[in-house]
């Protein structure tokens, strides 16, 4: 599966109050963070030379950057849709509001799917608990990058 191939070379983000990452053995100040987003932000703050000495840091750092990019493209979709469909307000006053609500609901559901899927995948493959955290984060990173590409295709339609 995806993670078996990725585990050789590599080594996810929840909304506030979201899913908790699995345990980790890296820097206690980052590995003790209870949310993916907190752990990713912590590693993103490490100096590059410190990060390069950690088995976990690179994927968490990259995930932090990818999640930031994902949020940017999501905001851009809403901005462009609001502009593109402003003329609909006369005939359908709630069109843009409904579109925005549906898009935000979809992105939240996608993040919940991503996190749950990526937490289960290494366990389904029989990976040891010590490997699960890094593999989960690698999976989250891969799916997030794919989601960014998917939304960028939507952006080209505007």
Tell me what the structure shows:
The chain is mostly helical. The protein has one domain (19-156). The protein is 70% helix and 0% strand. Helix 3 (36-44) crosses helix 5 (57-84) and helix 5 (57-84) packs antiparallel against helix 6. The longest helix has 30 residues, at 95-124. The radius of gyration is 18 Å and the shape is elongated. It starts with a helix and ends with a helix. 27% of the residues are buried. The model is unreliable at 1-27 (pLDDT under 50).
Characteristic key phrases:
mainly alpha, single chain, 158 residues, disordered N terminus, elongated, 7 helices
Itemize the secondary structure elements and their pairings.
Blueprint: H1 2-9, H2 28-31, H3 36-44, H4 48-51, H5 57-84, H6 95-124, H7 129-156
Helix pairs in contact: 1-7, 3-5, 5-6, 5-7, 6-7
Please give the alpha-carbon distance between the first and last residues.
35 Å
Report helical residue fraction: over 70%
Helix-strand makeup class: mainly alpha
The percentage of residues in β strands lies in under 5%
SSE pattern, N- to C-terminal:
HHHHHHH
Q: If you compute it from the alpha carbons, what radius of gyration comes out, rounded to the nearest whole angstrom?
A: 18 Å
C-alpha geometry: elongated
Mean pLDDT: 82
Query: For the report, how would you describe the main beta sheet?
Result: none
- The domain count comes to 1
Uncertain segments of ≥5 residues (pLDDT<50)? 1-27
List how many beta strands DSSP finds: 0
How many helices? The count is 7
InterPro entries: LprI-like_N
Protein name: Lysozyme inhibitor LprI family protein
Pfam family, one: LprI
Domain Lysozyme inhibitor LprI-like N-terminal: 55-150
